[in-house]
Amino acid sequence: MDVIRNGDLDGKRFRYRIAVIVIGIIVLIIFSLIESLSGKAQGVDENQGEDVTDMTDVSEDYDISGASDRNICYENRIAITFDDGPKGKITEELLDGLEERGVKATFFLIGESAEKYPEVVKRMYDAGHLIGSHTYSHVKLCDMSTENALEEIKKANSAIEGITGVRPKYIRPPYGMYSEQLLMSVNTTPVLWTVDPNDWNTTNAGAVVKKVVSKVKCGDIILLHDIYPSSVAAALEIIDQLKAKGYIFVTVDQILLD
Ligand SMILES: [Zn+2]
């Protein structure tokens, strides 16, 4: 204001306009600075809020030990697998339980058992479970000639394909023993396991449940056998408990692809 009073009329008007423009620019700069600072502060708060909620969900509500692997392990997926079947009513009881729970499992079938219970295998396939091979007569593939080993694999695949119309892509080699080269030659992928409660060695379903539920984490492949009533009871209880903890059951191909 002092500047305007001291000049001539044109000078006063000119300086007055300059002053208005300068003040206007300063006000705009101040406003934009305040806005950007408050925006940043808000953004930080929101992010922190989300992180905290996330950690609470995982560690307290679900208590999933593998939660730190979330980027690797998609959606808390786990797979439940059954070897050595099918075995008539025992496998059928399992299929009933899986159906009630809306769970898809993976079955590694012994070829000669598949031939014995074709209607169970058909039901398994129609229900959307994944079916793999466990050789034709449950042999140790490494303890025999390549020729015989190939025969075991091919015979099992043919038995299963004869019932479902689909040739198995996956094999669980009995005792986990196999040669990579042998399986590659028949275009078959081996699938092992990460959680083994030794269910075949006990009739105590509760002990099997406890072993699995205490060990399991995202991305695990659980090994059970659908030829023992106690294993079927354990499997259904394991599914109930792990579903309640937020796990999602998928077939092994969906774990291997992740
Ligand atoms: Zn087996």
State the CATH class of the largest domain: Alpha Beta
Could you describe the largest sheet, including whether it forms a barrel?
A: 5 strands, parallel
- Given the structure, what is the number of helices? 10
Q: For the record, what is the CATH homologous superfamily label of the largest domain?
A: Glycoside hydrolase/deacetylase
Helix fraction bin: 55-70%
Give, in order, the helices and strands: HHEHEHHEHEHEHEHEH
Q: Give the N-to-C terminal Cα separation.
A: 72 Å
Low-confidence stretches: 1-7, 37-71
Count of domains: 2
Radius of gyration from CA coordinates = 32 Å
Q: List bound small molecules.
A: zinc ion
Average pLDDT for all residues? 83
Structural class by secondary-structure content:
alpha/beta
Describe this structure in words.
The chain is of the alpha/beta class. It folds into 2 domains: 2-62; 68-256, TIM Barrel. It has 10 helices and 7 strands. Strands 1, 2, 3, 6 and 7 form a 5-stranded parallel sheet that branches. β1 (77-83), α3 and β2 form a beta-alpha-beta unit. α8 packs parallel to α9. The chain is elongated and about 110 Å long. Residues 1-7 and 37-71 have low confidence and may be disordered. The site of zinc ion has 5 residues, from loops.
